[in-house]
Structure formats: C-alpha cells, structure tokens
From TrEMBL:
Pfam families: ALKBH8_N (PF09004). The lineage of its organism: Eukaryota, Metazoa, Chordata, Craniata, Vertebrata. This is Reverse transcriptase domain-containing protein. GO terms for molecular function: 2-oxoglutarate-dependent dioxygenase activity; methyltransferase activity. Coiled coil: none annotated. Residues 1-90 form the Reverse transcriptase domain. InterPro entries: AlkB_hom8_N (IPR015095), RT_dom (IPR000477).
C-alpha cells in the first residue's frame, strides 16, 4: 500500500514497481515512497537487488529538468530511457517503436517454424492454430495499451508479419487493426461493469436520454485522441 495518494505500488511475482506522479517538480512523496520500501524490505529480511533496479522519468516535454538520482542502500539507481515491464517495452517519451521492433523481430523468428510445419505437410488448420498460439498472441499482447499510439510505420511492420503468415497458412487471418478494435471494445465493457477497476471512474454515462452512451477524459492532444480510453468511448457509443 502506497504511503501517498500520488504514488502507486505495483507487484507482480518477485518484481515491485513504484509509480509516482511528480507535480511542480516536487519529488518529496516519490523519494519517501522509495525510502519506505527500502526500510520495509530491511525489516522483513528481503534484499533489494540494486543492480537490477532501474529508474525511468516519463515525460513528453521538450525541456526536462535535472532530477537528482535515487539511492538505495547507498548505491545510485541506474536511470534508463526504456525498460521492459510485464513483457512490454516502455520508453520515457511514451513512444512505441522500441516495443514494436522487439515484437516484430520475435514474430519473424517464429515465422520460420511456421514455414517448417508447412513443409512437413501439416494440415492448414493445424498451421493456423500454431500461428494463433505463437505469433498472433505475441503481436496482440497488451494491444489495447500500445497499438493505438503506434506510428504508421510501426503499423505497417506489424501487418507485414500477418501478411507473411497468411501466405504460409493459405487462409484469411484477422488484421491487427480489427483485433485491436475488438479487444478495446471488450475491455471497455469489462471496466464499466467493474466498479473496483482503477479506470472505472473515467467512463461517465451521459444523460438518461442517451442511454448506453458514455464520455471520457478530454482529448486535448493527438496522443490522447489515440489512447485506449477515447478509442473505447467511440466504440461503446457506436455499438450501443
């Protein structure tokens, strides 16, 4: 549980991530949170691996202020411009080229196995199932979070993999844009039904005259217009 409302602590297996919102360049709450985590680990006989601990400052402003480094157990924590979080590459400028390049590279490697299966004479249905399990699952992993803000170049690179797989399988495969749309709509409906979801409050029903219609956060920038939330609102209002 975070000590400050502006901070969040995310735990997954043996990994712990501290996320902090820094306002007016005031990093007091953030530094206190890191210090509290360090003390808690010491009191509970847990050792923090500082060499594997990374710090990343996320921001889209052209001019960034200098931020003093964080220390854990007297050691400076390395500051990075990107890191892998739950399988997704996140960068400090909130762009997705690094993640896309990684996904495309892995997917192309798996296309080799798809070609080998075809040469072995496996049935088209079996080859397609292999594609869906090993390649499509990779291309669509957390797609609601990153696909909407990918560049046109990234979209083309991803779709080329799908077209290559389609030529190998010999059957029609769903385009990633269609997969993204379906996943966004499905996820939005789940969030609306779950009052405990952190994003539930972002979906506000409109007046009773427009039953089934919702509004979300203001689309002030192009990046926000392409976000999951605005995409979800458009889909909900068009389907319902």
């Amino acid at each position: 549980m975070a000590k400050h409302a502006s901070n969040s602590i995310i735990k997954f297996a043996d990994d712990t991530t501290v996320v902090a919102l820094i306002t007016n360049n005031d990093k007091t709450a953030y530094r206190e949170e890191v210090r509290a985590l360090e003390v808690w680990c010491q009191e509970n006989n847990l050792s923090l691996n500082v060499n594997k601990t990374k710090e990343m400052i996320v921001g889209v402003r052209k001019q960034q202020r200098e931020h003093p480094p964080i220390h854990i157990n007297g050691t400076v924590v390395e500051r990075v411009v990107s890191f892998k979080f739950l399988g997704i590459h996140i960068t400090d400028n909130l762009k997705w080229s690094t993640n896309t390049v990684s996904v495309v590279k892995k997917a192309q490697q798996r296309l080799f196995n798809l070609r080998r299966l075809k040469k072995c004479g496996l049935a088209p249905k079996t080859i397609t199932n292999f594609y869906r399990c090993t390649i499509e699952s990779l291309l669509s992993g957390c797609i609601t979070a990153w696909y909407g803000n990918c560049s046109a170049h990234n979209h083309k690179a991803l779709q080329r993999v799908v077209r290559s797989a389609q030529r190998i399988t010999g059957g029609k495969l769903p385009a990633l844009q269609d997969t993204h749309t379906t996943r966004c709509h499905r996820k939005a409906k789940k969030i609306i039904k779950d009052i405990n979801h952190p994003s539930h409050c972002l979906f506000t029903p409109l007046s009773s005259r427009r039953r089934g219609q919702y509004r979300c956060i203001k689309a002030g920038t192009e990046r926000l217009k392409n976000s999951f939330y605005l995409k979800a609102i458009r889909l909900l209002n068009s389907h319902d």
